[in-house]
Amino acid sequence: DQQVKQNSPSLSVQEGRISILNCDYTNSMFDYFLWYKKYPAEGPTFLISISSIKDKNEDGRFTVFLNKSAKHLSLHIVPSQPGDSAVYFCAASGYTGNQFYFGTGTSLTVIP
Amino acid sequence: DSGVTQTPKHLITATGQRVTLRCSPRSGDLSVYWYQQSLDQGLQFLIQYYNGEERAKGNILERFSAQQFPDLHSELNLSSLELGDSALYFCASTLGEGLYNEQFFGPGTRLTVL
């Protein structure tokens, strides 16, 4: 069962515009959410995270929004740059329990 | 460079065989995680070790096993290999025990089962 879902396999955005990547989850017990970025032939790298006690976390050009009632989170990248072209994975975990789930990823292409 | 190393980079083997993938965590990190990424699939969490002990288990098949040694490196053993086991296998490490910690990933081992 896919407890973390990224329904858009790909997204194309013009350089300088906003990129919005979406993620839905099914388990209301998840406490912590993370975004990872992955370039080809490399392992994922951590981007930004958010705890369930917050609804927004910002780090430079990257902002993650969490809507607990909708079980939905999104990653906003503003402004988008060509170097942001990569696959983005969202992930979810609980502070207790022993499960950790990644989504299937969204491939972002930023067009110069 | 995340500081996590994985060997080998590529592995080609036949069905029914057994292979061992190796992971060295970042210096100082006590947790090692293993993931499988199949074609068109996200990363599937397999298992976590913390300071030599199994801490969390995900969707790991019974044919697969792992261990973490006193020097904190870890090995993932895959046996009775099937075509469907062809995938990228990543390991990651963190200092702490919690699955919610930022994980540092290695470059992966690409396993091809023929």
In short:
The complex is a heterodimer of chains A (112) and B (114). Chain A has 112 residues and is an all-beta fold.
Order of helices and strands of chain A: EEEEEEEEEEE
Q: Using the CA coordinates, give the radius of gyration of chain A.
A: 13 Å
Largest sheet of chain A: 6 strands, mixed
Structural class of chain B: mainly beta
- Tell me the number of helical segments of chain A per DSSP (H or I, 4 or more residues long): 0
Number of DSSP strand runs of chain A: 11
Name the beta content range of chain A.
over 45%
Globular, elongated, flat, extended or rod-shaped: what is the shape of chain A?
globular
Number of strands of chain B: 11
The biggest sheet of chain B amounts to:
7 strands, mixed
SSE order of chain B, one letter for each helix or strand: EEEEEEEEEEE
Shape of chain B: globular
Regions of chain A with pLDDT < 50 over 5+ consecutive residues? none
Mean pLDDT of chain A: 93
* Residues in helix, % of chain B: under 10%
H/I helix tally of chain B: 0
- Percent of residues in helices of chain A comes to under 10%
Would you write up a description of this structure?
The complex is a heterodimer of chains A (112) and B (114). Chain A has 112 residues and is an all-beta fold. In chain A, 0% of the residues lie in helices and 54% in strands. In chain A, strands 2, 4, 5, 9, 10 and 11 form a six-stranded mixed sheet that branches. The mean pLDDT of chain A is 93. Chain B is mostly beta strands and 114 residues long. Helix content of chain B is 0%, strand content 51%. In chain B, strands 2, 4, 5, 6, 9, 10 and 11 form a seven-stranded mixed sheet that branches. In chain B, strands 1-3-8-7 form a four-stranded antiparallel sheet, with no helix packed on it. In chain B, a hairpin with a 5-residue loop joins β4 (31-37) and β5. The N and C termini of chain B lie far apart (31 Å). Classes of the chains: A mainly beta (112), B mainly beta (114).
